[in-house]
Specification:
The chain has 380 residues and is an alpha/beta fold. The chain has 10 helices and 14 strands. It is flat and about 85 Å long. This is Small ribosomal subunit biogenesis GTPase RsgA.
């Protein structure tokens, strides 16, 4: 989703003491451990000429924002005027320009290379950014229960649309009666996606997963999927808080309450996220095409270009269902997510048009008042 940098004003800062030990190298260039590279340096040139320094957003709370700079971490109080679009608001993983002084200020956000955006949990027309500038999206799927095909397809669409590379990690394989069968089931839902079976208890798959992850990695999945436990296995420490699932229904508790960014010992950074109760899609056309590439390819073979894949003659999609190559459930999921995505996108577009019209009316009204005042001045 396209992103335009916008001014961000932050007043006041409180030094952090828990993100790094005193031995960490956060001198000039120390941000490379957090993903700073030559491309970012080039895009930051104008800000550096203005005396600003780069910083990465580590975590965002209501009213405060934690960042890491080349000389150490800071906590800044947010003082945004008005009600900014949530998509344009600072998010964990953002790169920013920081003005140092008596009261350090975040004065701009750099353009995002990628952003994981879902429709707002409040069902409003705004979107919500879960993480920014992500290279790999790790989707945690617990094998303690039967995999949920619809949820996996939904999360994959979100991941593909972000511009990052999705990887599915099957957690808790030690609690599955048939992990091989579960892996086959998930593989049918995610063509072309790397799938790694793991167990934090036995250590299965952890080293293989560490070897394939680079850059900025974000963990996504529902509560109880084992994201924080997996994150701790990757970090090699008990940095992230974990909790047991409820015995009565197997569902997880929200032990992670905020998105947080932590450096990995082998390079790169990890973003842990709270469990997602709902994942609404918005503007995820390309993500859906990637997830349901099998249906998209079949549709090209239909006799009619506008085939609805119901009872039209020569429908390749229905023929695949009859032959058993495609399940009715998968087609129904495809249609459901398409409808949801179109509805959320249209609501967002309608809001943007309304805001544009309101701005035009405000400008017209201001001009009219100015001309009326000038006319009165001339006549007096």
């Amino acid at each position: 989703m396209p992103y335009s940098p916008r001014p961000l004003f932050v007043k006041g800062s409180i030094p952090l003491s828990s993100h790094h030990s005193s031995g960490d190298d956060l001198s000039a260039g120390g941000l490379s451990a957090y993903g700073w590279d030559a491309g970012l340096e080039e895009s930051f040139a104008a800000h550096r000429s203005a005396g600003l320094v780069p910083a990465r957003v580590v975590g965002v709370d209501r009213g405060t924002c934690d960042v890491i700079t080349g000389t150490g971490p800071l906590r800044a109080r947010l003082a945004l005027p008005g009600a900014p679009d949530p998509i344009s608001s600072p998010c964990t993983g953002d790169w920013a320009a920081l003005s140092l002084g008596h009261e350090p200020e975040l004065v701009a956000l750099l353009p995002r290379r990628s952003a994981i955006v879902r429709s707002s949990a409040s069902r409003s027309s705004h979107g919500q950014v879960l993480a920014a500038n992500v290279d790999t999206v790790v989707l945690a799927v617990s094998l303690a229960d039967e995999p949920n095909p619809g949820r996996i397809e939904r999360l994959l669409a979100l991941a593909w649309e972000s511009g990052a590379l999705p990887v599915i990690v099957l957690t808790k394989t030690d609690r599955s009666a048939d992990p091989g069968q579960a892996m086959d089931t998930v593989a049918e839902l995610a063509p072309g996606v790397e799938i790694v079976p793991t167990s934090a208890t036995t250590g299965e798959g952890i080293d293989a997963l560490k070897a394939m992850l680079t850059g900025t990695i974000v963990l996504l999945g529902p509560s109880g999927a084992g994201k924080s436990t997996l994150g701790n296995a990757l970090l090699g420490t008990e940095t992230l808080e974990t909790g047991a699932v409820r015995a009565q229904d197997g569902k997880g508790r929200h032990t992670t309450v905020r998105r947080q960014l932590v450096p990995l010992p082998g390079g790169g950074v990890l973003i842990d996220t709270p469990g997602l109760r709902g994942v609404g899609l918005m503007g995820a056309d390309e993500g859906l095409q990637q997830v349901f590439a099998d249906i998209e390819e079949l549709a090209l073979e239909c006799r009619f270009g506008d085939c609805g894949h119901d009872s039209e003659p020569g429908c390749a999609v229905q023929a695949a269902i009859v032959s058993g190559d495609l399940s009715e459930r998968r087609l129904a999921s495809y249609r459901k997510l398409q409808r949801e995505n179109a509805w959320a996108t249209s609501r967002n577009d309608a809001r943007l048009r309304a805001e544009h019209d309101d701005r035009k009316k405000s400008i017209t009204r201001s001009l009219r008042e100015t001309y009326t005042f000038r006319d009165r001045q001339r006549r007096s």
